[in-house]
Fold:
Amino acid sequence: MARVYNFSAGPAVLPEEVLREAADEMLDYNGSGMSVMEMSHRSKTYDKIIKDAEADLRTLMNIPDNYKVLFLQGGDSLVFASVPMNLMKNKKAGYIITGQWAKKAFAEAKIYGEAVELASSADKTFSYIPDCSDLPITDDMDYVYICENNTIYGTKFWKLPDTKGKILVADQSSCFLSEPVDVTKYGLIHAGVQKNVGPAGVQVVIIREDLISDDVLPGTPTMMKYKTHADNDSLYNTPPAYGIYICGKVFKWLLKQGGLEAMKKRNEEKAKILYDFLDQSKLFKGTVVKEDRSLMNVPFVTGSDELDAKFVAEAKAEGLESLKGHRSVGGMRASIYNAMPIEGVKKLVAFMQKFEEENS
Ligand SMILES: *Cc1c(COP(=O)(O)O)cnc(C)c1O
Structure:
């Protein structure tokens, strides 16, 4: 068996240790005589799995008691709808447009109310984060929405916008658990776990308790109400049980690595290797302004579609997988999430060096 270095943006690389443990437990979880996949979500054994997962996530992120943690399903794209359904009391909210996922969230919000574009970096193909120090936020807005790490374009909000007292809602899908965050700065954080944490099919929503209520937009389905899931500890109906179990293992793995401070250090070290190479390369160019670069998703180009395609194909032959950029932007993208070992980044850079010598 040969494992590759998988640079996919998502679903993405998971810690090998976690996969091995899950494999060992596949037929008999902890003496239960069955797989977690086959287990009642109402059983004592599963209850401990989901409770431990939540407790470990709370420890990792230092989540205050007045925030609820919800494990939901439907894809993170469904949260684009549940946010306005639950939070748009005045039917008005501000959106900062920094890429495809922010655009999609914005379009979804428009179905339910007045979604206002507060700032955008569309003018330069989303290669930077706009200045958010004095946004045209009005008093009647229910929240301000950002996509904190832009998976496709490789930008990151290193400074949160001034929301002028409004609730901040953040999509953290592709930077979730990559570094410490101050949860108290947000009203709601959401993340699809398939980017940095687990298998597709689980979204985590971390929401301040006072924002959870029955006062939702008329017609909101029961399953889309945060209160439904908060009141039932994410066990209102069958949750994405196996996915939550794997997330729980990744949370434990992260704690063992030293938590989010340690991950941040490691992620900075990995990203630096790649960015330092890009900054001196004559063939490869990073596409993002320096101060807004993501630690997780690193897009780059050669300037020639032909060379880009050659690079992706030859890299694959070397066991460096899924380096093709998003279909909407082309070029290359290396996603170097928590579970990407530093050896993978070093091997990528060594290969880029070699490719550069051979092709210039
Ligand atoms: C992948 C991604 C999504 C969409 O996730 P789905 O689970 O496929 O709906 C949303 N936001 C960001 C930032 C993403 O990277």
